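Open question from group meeting: does this chain pack into something compact, or does most of it stay loose? Before anyone orders reagents, we agreed to write out a predicted structure and look at it together. Recording both the input and the output here so the notebook holds the full record.
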Amino acid sequence: MSITINDFNNEAITDKIEENMRSELKTFDNKTVENIWSFIQQDLHCCGITNSSDWQENSHYASGAVPDSCCMNVTNFCLGSASSMAVWFVLAVSKLVN
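Structure tokens returned:
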């Protein structure tokens, strides 16, 4: 017996991806360059799971700031915020699923 990706409901897959992303988002500390969040946001040009305000779930960014990898021009301390025009406004979860 074999199972293919088509055997799974797309919505269930999306939900599981989002659940795992949310768990990782809450513990991200912006100190490890190789962190999966840095890769996702820089490579896919996105910020957060559904939007940049998702970062407020992380105690390091509860004030409205976002990680440097959210910024369109990534630099250390780019000072991006969830409302900044310098921050990507694309949904990471939709880019990963599609």
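Observations to bring back to the group:
The two ends are 27 Å apart (CA to CA).
DSSP finds three helices and no strands in the chain.
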